Amino acid sequence: MKTKKIHEFRASTLVEMLVVIVVSGVLFLVLFDGVDLVRRYTNRLNRGLSAGNVLLDNFQQMDHLFRTSDSVLSVEGAFHFYRDGERFALGTVQDSLWLCSRENGQDTLFRGVEECRVIPSAGYLARVDSLGIRFRYRGKELYFLFAGENKAEEDWERRATGLENQFKEEYDDDME
Which end of the chain, N or C, is less surrounded by CB atoms within 10 Å? Predict the structure, then answer.
Protein backbone atom coordinates (compact mmCIF):
# COMPACT_ATOMS: atom_id res chain seq x y z
CA MET A 1 0.00 0.00 0.00
CA LYS A 2 1.16 3.41 -0.84
CA THR A 3 1.54 5.99 1.83
CA LYS A 4 0.97 9.57 1.11
CA LYS A 5 3.60 11.96 2.16
CA ILE A 6 2.23 15.07 3.68
CA HIS A 7 4.17 18.26 3.16
CA GLU A 8 4.05 20.68 5.96
CA PHE A 9 4.43 24.38 5.34
CA ARG A 10 5.59 26.51 8.16
CA ALA A 11 3.41 29.49 8.64
CA SER A 12 4.53 32.91 9.81
CA THR A 13 3.09 34.29 12.92
CA LEU A 14 1.22 37.55 13.02
CA VAL A 15 4.06 39.25 14.89
CA GLU A 16 6.60 38.23 12.24
CA MET A 17 4.36 39.59 9.48
CA LEU A 18 3.93 42.90 11.32
CA VAL A 19 7.71 43.23 11.80
CA VAL A 20 8.29 42.66 8.07
CA ILE A 21 5.65 45.29 7.18
CA VAL A 22 7.11 47.87 9.61
CA VAL A 23 10.70 47.30 8.41
CA SER A 24 9.70 47.56 4.73
CA GLY A 25 7.72 50.76 5.50
CA VAL A 26 10.76 52.32 7.18
CA LEU A 27 12.96 51.33 4.24
CA PHE A 28 10.53 52.96 1.78
CA LEU A 29 10.45 56.16 3.84
CA VAL A 30 14.24 56.33 3.95
CA LEU A 31 14.44 55.63 0.23
CA PHE A 32 11.97 58.39 -0.65
CA ASP A 33 13.69 60.85 1.70
CA GLY A 34 16.99 60.02 0.01
CA VAL A 35 15.47 60.60 -3.42
CA ASP A 36 14.09 63.94 -2.22
CA LEU A 37 17.51 64.94 -0.84
CA VAL A 38 19.15 64.09 -4.17
CA ARG A 39 16.47 66.06 -6.06
CA ARG A 40 16.98 69.14 -3.85
CA TYR A 41 20.77 68.89 -4.20
CA THR A 42 20.62 68.65 -8.01
CA ASN A 43 18.18 71.60 -8.14
CA ARG A 44 20.61 73.67 -6.06
CA LEU A 45 23.50 72.72 -8.35
CA ASN A 46 21.47 73.60 -11.45
CA ARG A 47 20.55 77.00 -9.99
CA GLY A 48 24.23 77.67 -9.25
CA LEU A 49 25.30 76.65 -12.75
CA SER A 50 22.61 78.72 -14.43
CA ALA A 51 23.55 81.76 -12.31
CA GLY A 52 27.17 81.35 -13.45
CA ASN A 53 26.02 81.11 -17.07
CA VAL A 54 23.96 84.28 -16.67
CA LEU A 55 27.00 86.13 -15.32
CA LEU A 56 29.13 84.87 -18.21
CA ASP A 57 26.46 85.88 -20.72
CA ASN A 58 26.20 89.37 -19.21
CA PHE A 59 29.99 89.74 -19.27
CA GLN A 60 30.05 88.75 -22.94
CA GLN A 61 27.26 91.21 -23.77
CA MET A 62 29.15 94.06 -22.11
CA ASP A 63 32.41 93.04 -23.76
CA HIS A 64 30.61 92.90 -27.12
CA LEU A 65 29.26 96.42 -26.57
CA PHE A 66 32.79 97.75 -26.09
CA ARG A 67 34.35 95.78 -28.94
CA THR A 68 31.73 96.68 -31.53
CA SER A 69 31.37 100.36 -30.66
CA ASP A 70 33.34 103.06 -32.43
CA SER A 71 33.35 105.22 -29.33
CA VAL A 72 31.93 105.32 -25.82
CA LEU A 73 31.09 108.64 -24.20
CA SER A 74 30.47 109.23 -20.51
CA VAL A 75 27.93 112.03 -20.04
CA GLU A 76 26.48 112.73 -16.57
CA GLY A 77 26.92 109.16 -15.36
CA ALA A 78 25.46 107.56 -18.49
CA PHE A 79 27.52 105.68 -21.05
CA HIS A 80 26.61 106.25 -24.69
CA PHE A 81 27.81 103.55 -27.11
CA TYR A 82 28.18 104.76 -30.71
CA ARG A 83 28.52 102.76 -33.91
CA ASP A 84 28.79 104.41 -37.34
CA GLY A 85 28.04 107.81 -35.81
CA GLU A 86 24.76 106.73 -34.18
CA ARG A 87 24.07 105.76 -30.60
CA PHE A 88 23.01 102.12 -30.45
CA ALA A 89 23.10 101.51 -26.69
CA LEU A 90 22.96 103.40 -23.42
CA GLY A 91 24.40 102.15 -20.15
CA THR A 92 23.45 103.54 -16.74
CA VAL A 93 23.84 102.63 -13.09
CA GLN A 94 20.57 102.86 -11.16
CA ASP A 95 20.04 101.50 -7.65
CA SER A 96 23.21 99.36 -7.85
CA LEU A 97 22.08 97.85 -11.19
CA TRP A 98 24.04 98.28 -14.43
CA LEU A 99 21.31 98.70 -17.04
CA CYS A 100 21.79 98.54 -20.79
CA SER A 101 19.10 100.12 -22.96
CA ARG A 102 18.82 99.32 -26.66
CA GLU A 103 16.14 99.72 -29.30
CA ASN A 104 14.61 96.35 -28.45
CA GLY A 105 14.44 96.91 -24.67
CA GLN A 106 16.39 97.16 -21.47
CA ASP A 107 18.67 94.56 -19.86
CA THR A 108 20.12 94.30 -16.38
CA LEU A 109 23.72 93.25 -16.90
CA PHE A 110 25.14 93.47 -13.37
CA ARG A 111 23.56 93.63 -9.92
CA GLY A 112 25.13 94.93 -6.73
CA VAL A 113 27.30 97.48 -8.55
CA GLU A 114 29.44 99.39 -6.07
CA GLU A 115 31.73 101.36 -8.40
CA CYS A 116 32.19 102.25 -12.05
CA ARG A 117 35.72 103.38 -12.76
CA VAL A 118 36.09 105.28 -16.02
CA ILE A 119 39.48 105.54 -17.72
CA PRO A 120 39.16 108.40 -20.22
CA SER A 121 40.92 108.54 -23.56
CA ALA A 122 44.00 110.70 -23.71
CA GLY A 123 42.95 114.25 -24.51
CA TYR A 124 39.18 113.54 -24.36
CA LEU A 125 37.73 113.48 -20.86
CA ALA A 126 34.23 112.52 -22.01
CA ARG A 127 35.45 109.66 -24.21
CA VAL A 128 35.80 106.34 -22.37
CA ASP A 129 38.87 104.25 -23.12
CA SER A 130 38.16 101.58 -20.51
CA LEU A 131 35.47 100.95 -17.94
CA GLY A 132 35.92 98.99 -14.72
CA ILE A 133 32.87 97.72 -12.88
CA ARG A 134 33.19 96.50 -9.28
CA PHE A 135 30.19 94.60 -7.91
CA ARG A 136 29.18 91.90 -5.47
CA TYR A 137 28.05 88.55 -6.76
CA ARG A 138 26.97 85.76 -4.42
CA GLY A 139 28.93 87.25 -1.54
CA LYS A 140 32.12 87.76 -3.55
CA GLU A 141 33.53 91.02 -4.84
CA LEU A 142 34.23 90.96 -8.58
CA TYR A 143 35.92 93.54 -10.80
CA PHE A 144 35.55 93.44 -14.56
CA LEU A 145 37.50 95.72 -16.89
CA PHE A 146 36.12 96.40 -20.35
CA ALA A 147 38.00 98.08 -23.19
CA GLY A 148 37.71 98.27 -26.93
CA GLU A 149 39.83 95.77 -28.84
CA ASN A 150 40.95 98.31 -31.43
CA LYS A 151 42.14 100.68 -28.73
CA ALA A 152 44.38 98.04 -27.19
CA GLU A 153 45.93 97.23 -30.58
CA GLU A 154 46.49 100.94 -31.32
CA ASP A 155 48.13 101.37 -27.91
CA TRP A 156 50.39 98.35 -28.51
CA GLU A 157 51.40 99.65 -31.95
CA ARG A 158 52.11 103.10 -30.50
CA ARG A 159 54.34 101.61 -27.77
CA ALA A 160 56.13 99.33 -30.25
CA THR A 161 56.79 102.26 -32.59
CA GLY A 162 58.07 104.33 -29.67
CA LEU A 163 60.52 101.58 -28.67
CA GLU A 164 61.71 101.17 -32.25
CA ASN A 165 62.31 104.90 -32.55
CA GLN A 166 64.19 104.89 -29.26
CA PHE A 167 66.52 102.12 -30.48
CA LYS A 168 67.01 103.92 -33.82
CA GLU A 169 68.02 107.11 -31.96
CA GLU A 170 70.46 105.16 -29.76
CA TYR A 171 71.91 103.44 -32.86
CA ASP A 172 72.25 106.78 -34.65
CA ASP A 173 74.00 108.25 -31.57
CA ASP A 174 76.49 105.36 -31.54
CA MET A 175 77.24 105.88 -35.25
CA GLU A 176 78.38 109.48 -34.74
Answer: N
